[in-house]
Amino acid sequence: MPSKTKQSASSAIGLDVGTEAHPLTGGPSDFDPLLALIGDAQYVLIGEASHGTHEFYRVRGEITKRLIEERGFRSVAVEADWPDAYRVNRFVRGEGTDRDADEALSGFKRFPQWMWRNADVLDFVGWLRSFNDSLPATNTRAGFYGLDLYSLHTSIAAVLEYLDAVDPAAAQRARHRYSCFEDFGEDVQAYGYAATHGLAESCEPAVVAQLVDMRRSAAEYARRDGRLTPDAQFYAEQNARLVRDAEEYYRAMFYGGVASWNLRDRHMAETLDALTASLAQQKSATKIVVWAHNSHLGDARATEMATRGELNVGQLVRTKHGDNAVLVGFTTYGGTVTAANDWDSPAERRTVRPARPDSYEAVMHDTGLARFFLNLRSNSALIEALDAPRLERAIGVIYKPETERQSHYFTARLPRQFDALFHYDVTRAVEPLERTGIWDRGELPETFPSAL
Question: Whole-prediction pTM value?
Answer without folding.
Answer: 0.94
